[in-house]
Amino acid sequence: MSILIDENTTFIIQGITGREAINLTRECLDYGSKIVGGVTPGRKGREVHGVPVFDTIAQLIEHNGGQVPDGSVVTVPPAGTKDAVFEALYAGIKTIVVVTERIPRRDVAAMVELADRNGARIIGPNCLGLIVPGVAKMGGIGGPAKNAAQAYQPGSVGVMSRSGGMTTEISSTLTAAGLGVSTAVSIGGDAIIGSTYAELMPYFEADEQTQAIVIYTEPGGRMEAQLSAWVKENNSRLPIIAFMAGKFMDDDEMQGMSFGHAGTIVEGKEDSATEKIARLQEAGIPVVERIDEIPDMVKKLIAERSAA
Amino acid sequence: MRFYEYEAREIVKRAGIPVTDYGFTTDADEAATIAERIAGPTVIKSQVLTGGRMKAGGVKFADTPDEARAHAADILKLEINGLQPRGVLVDPKADVKQEYYMGVVWDGAAKKPLMLFSDMGGIDIEQVAEEHPDHVGRGHFSTLEPFSDFMAKQVIADAGVTGKALQRCTPILARLAQLFLDNDMLLAEINPLAELHDGTFVALDAHMEMENEGMGRQKALIKALGIGPEEGTRETYVPSAFEEAVLAVDAADHRGVIQGKDNGFDGNIGLIIGAGGGSLTLTDAVRQQGGKPANYSEIGGNPSVAKACGLAKAVLQKDGVEQIAVMMSIVSNTRVDIVARGVIKACLELGKDPAETIAIFRIPGAWEDEGFKILDKYGIEYCDRSVSLWDAAGRAVAKIQGAGA
């Protein structure tokens, strides 16, 4: 199986006529994803790689006989992203991948809050989406179908990463080691994101194909503290392995990040690489030094769990 | 974007929060005129985008207009943490009975804005939160629903405040919460909010920081504050010559994104690395294996040959750089062959042999076969995805150390 999307998932692309979106559409179609339409206001009647384009989601749904698509990939400029996501949420779409970068925080918070109320899930913003190897991908993750197939083979490990590019690097390492990937999610690196590690854990927990989780993380934010708390509170069957990038930023001469005092009491001292590593390890999540150590660690922990 | 205190107080004032009858000036004589108008003791405060003003002598008290003029003249010349003041603020010395703290900030974990309030104002809220947690009230609020005063009242009451102070502080915190949202702030803080002996409340200092991503739709406010577009986002540090060079290359061509930083780096390995997460991972890997990076860089988003070339040239021309390492995590939209062409072009244009200058090239992914062909032609050492980021970084370090021996 997989999480969030499977072979039957239908989705749309909002902002489909943009340069990047046209590539993204091609990549997803080639990979086998079911794209049932696209939306760009004012471009009704066009086609992008055979996908019909509409002015609104309502038109798209009407064209499809009232069928609400399962998901949407939103790739519209930052000023229009909140509105596009609201349109998708009001239409009843439940899984929304927001590719757009540099969206003001107020807008991200509003769309996440509305998604929560509607029982919908946002992945991103500022992310490459998600991929179920050999089945479907939703977003630019892995690039063209040929490249995606090379790096992502079906397997037993779930991947969650704050960096889009590193999702592929880690998955490729797992693929090369014969472990493969169940579902890989590029969750985005912004201060507020729709789906954090801890929020996605229950999905992986329920996915029989997944036997272990690998996360890629960076300094900033409290997402690892949340994951550590989740692990302590839930008796998860899944071992988690973490990789932490950006340790050099902890050095005194590198201190360039500015936070107000009030910011510090919210984030605590939990946002440096050193603190995060300590917190993860305390929750029993090993933090490897190198990406290429991940496969052996995954194998070791899966073996330990199955022996126990 | 950060704001000077006089601007932050203007923002607060526009939101309907009471402030003192202060004046801002860049001229010592005018400081005296403002003091005259105030007709009482004043505080002269340096307007500079850094903390520690008091300790540095950037805040002084005056009893007369002449004294205000003299202090203003001193403070206008006083550099604090390497920064020149924008001007001085002449503020009536308030007759303070009690100081409070109020602030609004984003809580990334809750994904909502958070109000903070304390009856122990005037000092770091961080310290109060640690030592007197019962004196700090906190409350999240919605970005979808209208704000209502009771939400602010709860936070203030949670800090243990009641009576007239609770009634008076409630609309002030409510307005601060509203202005935080309306103006795309990352931080909106009044510290101290003073209760005067006559029972009125007034903001004695304010600290505002606007999210850069929100500046586009806050143009009216920015303009009203008299901030010109040339001020940019008011980054705190001055870019180095290398950083300026990279910024210029990036600005000259819209394809792809590059970033080059060298604040804190002074080694001999020039880095052409990316993208976001890959840069962090690779910089760690080079350092952990004993290498000394000359810079930090990010390249991605399918840059043009010119952009890759421009970045490589800037790195190669940095003092102390002997060789460059060109490395990325597996790429999907950035074309390997284009980056290869760009870095080779940079070497050739600077009269250097690419094979000697490029310590390692590790970019697997889109168009890699074409890229590898070009690298072969110039005799450059490269590797594919079967060589890890760690090992690629290690090879670059070993090579440069061998070259130096």
From TrEMBL, chain A:
All copies of domain CoA-binding, residue ranges: 4-103
Supply the alphabetized keyword list: Ligase, Nucleotide-binding
GO CC: one term?
succinate-CoA ligase complex (ADP-forming)
- Native organism taxonomy: Bacteria, Bacillati, Actinomycetota, Thermoleophilia, Solirubrobacterales
Could you tell me which Gene3D superfamilies the record lists for this protein? NAD(P)-binding Rossmann-like Domain, Succinyl-CoA synthetase domains
The record's InterPro entries line, in alphabetical order, gives: CoA-bd, CoA_lig_alpha, NAD(P)-bd_dom_sf, Succ_CoA_lig_flav_dom, Succinyl-CoA_synth-like
Tell me yes or no: is Endoplasmic reticulum among this UniProt entry's keywords: no
Report what the protein is called: Succinate--CoA ligase subunit alpha
Any one Gene Ontology molecular-function term assigned to this protein's record: succinate-CoA ligase (ADP-forming) activity
Q: Which residues form the active site?
A: 261 (tele-phosphohistidine intermediate)
Which GO terms are recorded in the biological process aspect for this UniProt protein?
A: tricarboxylic acid cycle
- Give the originating organism: Paraconexibacter algicola
Ranges annotated as spanning the membrane? none
From TrEMBL, chain B:
One Pfam family matching this protein: ATP-grasp_2
> Which top-rank group of organisms is this from?
Bacteria
Q: Is Ligase a UniProt keyword of this protein?
A: yes
Which cellular components does GO assign to this protein? succinate-CoA ligase complex
Keywords from UniProt, A to Z, are: ATP-binding, Ligase, Nucleotide-binding
| Domain spans labelled ATP-grasp | 9-226
Q: What InterPro entries does its record include? A: ATP-grasp, ATP-grasp_succ-CoA_synth-type, ATP_grasp_subdomain_1, Succ_CoA_ligase-like_bsu, Succinyl-CoA_synth-like
What Gene Ontology molecular-function terms does this entry list? ATP binding; metal ion binding; succinate-CoA ligase (ADP-forming) activity
Biological process according to GO = succinyl-CoA metabolic process; tricarboxylic acid cycle
- Please give the name of this protein: ATP-grasp domain-containing protein
